[in-house]
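User: Hey, my collaborator sent me this sequence without any context and asked if I could get a structure. I don't really work with proteins. Can you help?
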Amino acid sequence: MQENVPDNVDAGRAEDTSEQVDIQNEEAVATDTALEITQNAPTSVTGSRKHRLLTLFHAKKQWFIPLVIILVLVILGGIPFTRYRILGVFIKEQLSVTVLDSTTQAPVTGATVRINGMKVTTNASGQANILVPVGDTAASISKQYYKDTKSNVLVTLSTSQNVLRLNLVATGRQVPVVIINKVNGQPIANAAIKVLDTTAETDKNGKTTIVLPTTAATQQATVSANGYNTLKTSVTVISQAVATNTFAIFPAGKVYFLSNLSGKIDVVATNLDGSDRTTVVAGTGSETADSTALLASRDWKHLALQSKRDTSTQSKIYLIAADTNNLSVIDEGANVSFEFIGWDGDNFVYIVNRQRAINGTYNQTVLKSFNANTGHITTVDQTDAQSGGLNVTFASTIQANLLSDGILYTKFWDRSGYYASSSLLSGKTQVIVKTKPDGSGAQTLKTFNATDYQFIEPQAGTPDEVYYKMGGFDADGTQKSSVYLKYESGNVQPASDVSDSNFYSNTYATYLVSPSGGGTFWSVPTDGKSNLFVGDQSGNNARSVAKLSDYNIYGWYSDAYLLVSKNGSELYILPTSGGDALKISDYYKPSQYFRGYGGGYGGI
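Assistant: No problem. I've predicted the 3D structure and written it out in structure-token form, which is a compact way to encode the shape of the chain:
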């Protein structure tokens, strides 16, 4: 039976149902919205954080990345097994390796040490230093006639702990060797002896041990050292120290001298032991004993040669460059003679004497300085002249001495004519002047009236000391009493200890100055013999190097050796400490004699 429902009731029900649906829909929408909010909310926050982190990373990446690396290293560094392995990528430290002979405990020189792909060689102390990454590493050491050895070593951050000492076991015979200086007998450090294919280097006492095969009683050896001539010799293969295995080698260097062995006067050079004799400048046959002289600079780099080498009968001064043996002309001229004063460094000082000046001619005497490096000649000073009438000429004269602080010279007027009157010298002055070796910085130390003293005679004393005798004549020709002066320490003062009786009788030695200028070398004749002395730059603190000998002074070679001559024809070398002189060579001594000079060697 169908129930009848009123229309308004159905409408109400429909409305209620619609409302419920709307409510449900709203709830569903709200639910979906809430769900969407719930789902989207965490994603939005995470993205924001990522964004901030990315922004921060890009802004601070210059320190962010290293910070992360350091953090990782700190973490890993706490693990002992990884600590040095990681640090080794970035850090290297020095490892000191010492290699010793297992039997003698003597240093093994020339051993090869290989570590981490690098190779070094041990020195005279058996040591080698090598820069390697920190951490565990393997070292291998080898040398001829020794067993190879290997060792593991931990290279730490502490240099003091990075020390490796290893012993090598010899497979041959250990031969002790000593190497000394032939001239002074002193041991030579860092000298090398090479035998077959192995080398050993000496310690500070000149000693080393070289391991050699026992297949022969002797082996050929080469002994060498920096600054010494190489020696070819043989070594006795024996484990005991024997005299035959002490080797003496000569200092390196060349000396120059004159020789007429060829029948002409040549310039010859040899090593200090007389070996490797070379003719540097061959004579032409025109040379004569009285026109030839050779004077070496104190460092033996330059030589001044006076020689007449052609048929023009004119003597010239030549320069010989020791490094090339090149010969070039320093000075020449017609009707001139030369007087050597000496070398000061690279400057050669000399005097040119021309024919007697007459009728107002100048430049009779010229004091010059030649620079061997530049080839430039400087006229330091020159004389004047004046005619006083028939056969009456007044000419100034120059006499010079080379001291450690420059050239000291006199320039004075003298009477040349027999009837010359001293009154003609009125208004003229006599002077004592000091100048530098290159002619600069001239200082007049003393000035005198030429009418009072017509001449000044110099006499060299000790180094940097010169005595002067001043004399003259009155207007009537009566000779005046002499006046004596002394130059010392830049001043000219009266010399109260000098008189007529001792000015000529005093024996003034010729002092040869050492290359450094710090020492002097001279001789004192005694009972027909020579006592040789070495002193300081002033000739004080004298020390005898030879007593009552047949030697005379010749020069220095460096500050360590002295050159001496014997019988005017034999050249020797000896140490500054004294001792036996070793012959270098025979040589030719010309007739010229340069008394009192202090610059250069070989002139006396």
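In plain terms: The first strand starts at residue 92 and ends at 101. You can pass these tokens on to your collaborator as they are.
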